[in-house]
Write a structure and sequence with these properties.
Blueprint: E1 2-5, H1 10-16, E2 32-35, E3 85-89, E4 94-97, E5 105-106, E6 118-122, E7 134-138, E8 144-149, E9 154-160, E10 168-173, E11 182-186, E12 192-195, E13 210-213, E14 219-224, E15 236-240, E16 245-248, E17 250-253, E18 256-258, E19 262-265, E20 271-275, E21 288-292, E22 297-300, E23 312-313, E24 321-324, E25 337-342, E26 347-351, E27 362-365, E28 372-376, E29 386-391, E30 394-397, E31 406-408, E32 414-421, E33 430-435, E34 440-443, E35 456-459, E36 465-469, E37 482-486, E38 491-494, E39 508-511, E40 517-524, E41 533-538, E42 543-546, E43 558-561, E44 567-570
Antiparallel strand pairs: 1-2, 3-4, 3-24, 4-5, 6-7, 7-8, 8-9, 10-11, 11-12, 12-13, 14-15, 15-16, 16-19, 17-18, 20-21, 21-22, 22-23, 25-26, 25-44, 26-27, 28-29, 29-30, 30-31, 32-33, 33-34, 34-35, 36-37, 37-38, 38-39, 40-41, 41-42, 42-43
Length: about 575
């Protein structure tokens, strides 16, 4: 495991903005983050096209009868006629695995250093070269950007804002029959909208949105597979929280893009991400790929009817991928690590590995024994957690590149700080603070971690809870949530609303008996499915994992390891 620098030295931070006479010097140097290495990227052994070998309709399986139409591959970056796999790794960077090569290499999308929340690709938008894909990224703050694709990277072309209103934006392929890929966007309420592509890349690429359905919130994964039945119209698979997979055949009609769903099968909940590489088998039909929690990829080859041939195992080690291009899950963003302060005051870091485990610990430095810390979801665009410390009433953010690390004074009145992510609906990370009277306050973030807006009162009576925690989406709607344990041991979910004036819905009881645990930690997404999970420590030092089930609760606990009572603080 390698460590990537989280920030510059303390002296450089203080020098970045001239110090004022009343400034309090930072008590600690900025820390280094534990980010697992992606140097040894593994490539799956899946069936794929030979270079330049596009099987035309007449080469398709004779069981299809008539010749099939072949949809354009959505992400063919090297121009060989087959889609290539774009994906975001642990380190926040994008990589591409070409279909006809064993090499995986870095693939920058523009020149920004931010960590994009999600990405997808479409074909046909570039009228000068319709087979060349156009890539799209979505920022946490709702900026959708398009990029002109090259073999070794892509250049920014266009950006538009306001897309944070949706919890999933993706392209299943061409939904309208004009040869250009279109976009679907789903709201947290479950409404589905179609953005029809207009063609051309230099300006706004989509027509105004059109609502095409409701009730789509029942699905925790929506994945487009380009075309699975040979009509060159995009099709869609949708998985519900029970693990049932459903097939939606495309109609080619903009007002009604899909036929009635057909159930494919059950047991698909074993996979944390479903995505499509388009046609991997060479028969002209889009195939489905599924990743298990252990990091193994499986190929489901299409039969041409919305069903699949028996699954075929591909390569392992793919848990290094945090988000696949075009994957069906709601992506996690903002926190993917755990910090611990041991009894001698040494600070250690653990990285999340997308398979339910933590990386081996990395020693950061000592002197943290009495520190009042909080590890929050990212307040800026780097996608990594921010480490806060309250020292003599002054709040410091050790991830703040914009200034001297000082947020402000007067923070000694708060007993608890929680940073679950965006609570106000603007895509920027926010902070919750509970005072000694049990009043909970919301501080809206400014997007770079250097300051917060004037506090807003959330409510009183929060002193009834002995633990408050949260990082990311727990109930599966894409909004940030928090957990609260009452003094009687009951655990409650406060689901986010995305509205600053009333950031939470009414509390929902998850279960009782949670007093058996003496520490609650929200690491972000532990198992790679995009939902925020929970770590708890028992009195004997055993650490357990509770995976969010996407329905506002958790699956059965899983033992992570022993000896965790070596830490006085876990964050």
């Amino acid at each position: 495991m390698t460590c990537t620098a989280l920030a510059v030295s303390a002296g450089m931070l203080i020098a970045a903005v001239p110090a004022q006479a009343d400034d309090t010097p930072a008590p600690h140097a900025p820390v280094k983050r534990a980010v697992p290495s992606v140097e040894d990227l593994q490539k799956p052994s899946l069936p794929h096209l030979r270079s330049g070998d596009k099987r035309a309709a007449e080469q398709a399986d004779p069981s299809f009868g008539a010749a099939i139409a072949v949809a354009r591959p959505r992400s063919d970056v090297d121009g060989d006629g087959a889609s290539d796999l774009l994906h975001r790794a642990w380190d926040g960077h994008y990589y591409v695995s070409p279909t006809n090569s064993a090499e995986t290499y870095a693939y920058p999308l523009g020149t920004s250093t931010e960590m994009y929340k999600d990405a997808f690709s479409i074909a046909g938008l570039d009228t000068a070269n319709p087979d060349r894909p156009t890539h799209f990224t979505i920022s946490a703050t709702g900026r959708l950007s398009s990029y002109s694709s090259g073999e070794f990277g892509a250049d920014l072309v266009w950006s538009g804002t306001g897309w944070q209103q949706f919890n999933k934006v993706f392209s299943p392929g061409d939904l309208t029959g004009d040869g250009v890929g279109d976009v679907l966007a789903r709201t947290p309420a479950g409404d589905l909208y179609l953005y029809r592509s207009k063609g051309g890349t230099a300006a706004e690429p989509f027509a105004a949105k059109v609502k095409v359905g409701s009730g789509w919130g029942q699905f925790d994964q929506l994945v487009g597979v380009n075309d699975v039945n040979g009509d060159a119209i995009a099709d869609l698979f949708a998985r519900d929280t029970a693990g049932d997979l459903h097939f939606y055949s495309g109609t080619g009609e903009p007002s009604r893009p899909f036929k009635s769903r057909v159930k494919v099968g059950s047991g698909w909940g074993q996979f944390n991400q479903l995505f499509s590489w388009d046609d991997l088998s060479g028969d002209g039909l889009g195939d489905l790929v599924a990743r298990s929690t252990s990091g193994v990829l499986y190929l489901y080859e299409s039969t041409g009817t919305g069903a699949f041939k028996p699954k075929e195992q591909g390569g392992s080690g793919w848990n290094y991928v945090s988000q696949f291009n075009g994957a069906g899950n709601i992506p996690a963003w903002g926190k993917s690590e755990v910090l611990g302060v041991d009894k001698s005051g040494v600070l250690y870091g653990y990285g999340v590995q997308n398979n339910g485990t933590l990386s081996p610990r990395s020693r950061i430095n000592d002197g943290w024994g009495s520190a009042k810390l909080a590890l929050t979801s990212s307040f800026d665009d780097d996608g990594f957690a921010d480490l806060l410390e309250v020292f003599e009433g002054t709040l410091f953010n050790y991830n703040d590149y914009a200034g001297d690390g000082i947020i402000g004074s007067g923070w000694g009145i708060y007993s608890t700080l929680v940073g679950p992510g965006d609570l106000s609906g603007d895509g920027k990370g926010d902070l919750l603070a509970r005072d000694s009277a049990g009043v909970l306050w919301l501080y809206r973030g400014n997007g770079n971690g250097s300051s917060f807006a004037t506090r807003q009162k959330v409510g009183s009576g929060w002193g009834q809870f002995s633990a408050l925690t949260g990082a990311g989406d727990i109930d599966g709607d894409g909004r940030s949530d928090i957990l609260a344990r009452a003094k009687d041991g009951n655990l409650y979910l406060y689901a986010g609303t995305g509205v600053a004036s009333a950031p939470f819905k009414a509390k929902k009881l998850i279960g009782s008996g949670w007093n058996q645990y003496n520490r609650f930690v929200s690491p972000g997404d532990l198992n790679g499915d995009g939902r925020g999970d929970l770590l708890v420590r028992a009195g004997d030092g055993v650490l357990y994992r509770y995976d969010a089930n996407g329905k506002g609760g958790f699956n059965a606990k899983v033992k992570i390891g022993t000896g965790w009572n070596t830490y006085n603080g876990l964050y």
